[in-house]
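Ticket #4471: structure output looks truncated?

Reporter: J.K.
Steps to reproduce: submitted the chain below (314 residues) through the standard prediction queue, then opened the result file.
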Amino acid sequence: MSDKFQMFENRLAKVEKHLRKTARRQGITCFRLYDRDLPEFPLIIELYENKVYVAEYRSQHGMDETAYDQWLQTSLEVIAKVLQVAEDDVYLRTRQRKQDRQSQYEKLDSSKEEMIVQEDGLKFKVNLSDYLDSGLFLDHRITRHMVLEEAKDKKVLNLFCYTGSFSVYAAAGGAASVTSIDLSKTYLQWAEENMRLNDLYDPARHQYIHADVLQHLDELKLNTYDLVILDPPTFSNSKRMKDFLDIQRDHVTLINKVLLATRTGGVIYFSNNLRKFELEEAAIQASSVKNITAQTVPFDFQGKLLRHCFRIIK
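Returned output as attached by the reporter:
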C-alpha cells in the first residue's frame, strides 16, 4: 500500500477510535467520521450502525479513468478494513459540483438499503442507497434536542421538513400540534413513517402538508405558531416550484413572512448551508436574533461545519 493510502488508513483509524467512544457515551448509533480531512481523499464518511455511507465530492483529481477507478476502489477497501465492515456494506454516493446537479428528491437507483437508527432515544429510518442524502442530517442533532426541550404544549411548524426528524423531536417533546410542510410526497410519507416508528403518529395533532413552502407562507394564519423550524435549501429550482429560491437573496423575505405566522415571543430556528452566508439582521422584524451556530455543532462536526444556525424571537 502506498504512503498516501497508509496515511488515509491511519487518519481514519485515529478519528474512528476517538469518535466511537463519544458516540457510545451519547447513545448515538450514527455519526460522521471523516470530512475531507486529507485533500487527497475528498470524501465524507458516515457510520450508520454497521453500515457506512461514503459521499465523494468530484474534485479536479487529474487522474485518468483507470487510475481514478483504482484510487476509489482502494479507498473503499481501506474504509471497510478500518471500520471492520464488509465491502458490500459500504454505500457510495457521488456529488457533482455542476449546474445540472441532481435534484435532492431524485431517486438514484432501485437497490433499497433501508435501516432504522437511533438518536436521543428516538428511531429514524435512513436509506443509504437511493438518494443523495440518507434521510437524517446528522449535523442538526443538537438543534433537534433544543426543539425537544422547548416543544411542550407548543404549536410547532416545520418548514422544508424533509423526512420530519425535527417533527418527531417536537412530538416527543409533547408539542400540542406539529405541522410539517414539504414539496416532496416521498419525504412527507417518510416523516409519517418516522412518527409511527416512535409510536407518536397522531393525525388529530399532526398535519403533513404537500406544498411549495414559498407559496404556502402566504396562506399561513397570522400569529399562530410558538416554535418554527426553518431549514431551507441553499438554492432550489425544482420544476414543481413556481419561483426559485436563493437563500442569500431571499432569507429576509422568508424569515419576515414566517414571523407574521409566529406568535409574539415565539421562536424560529433558522439554518442554512451556504458557506458565505451573511444574515441581514437589521431587515429582520424580530425582537431578538442570536447566532447559535457554535452551540449547535455536534462532536463529530467540530471544526468542519459549514452551516449557520440562528435563534430568532418575535
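Triage note (M.O.): checked the attachment and the full C-alpha cell line is present. The first helix runs from residue 3 to 26.
Status: closed, working as intended.
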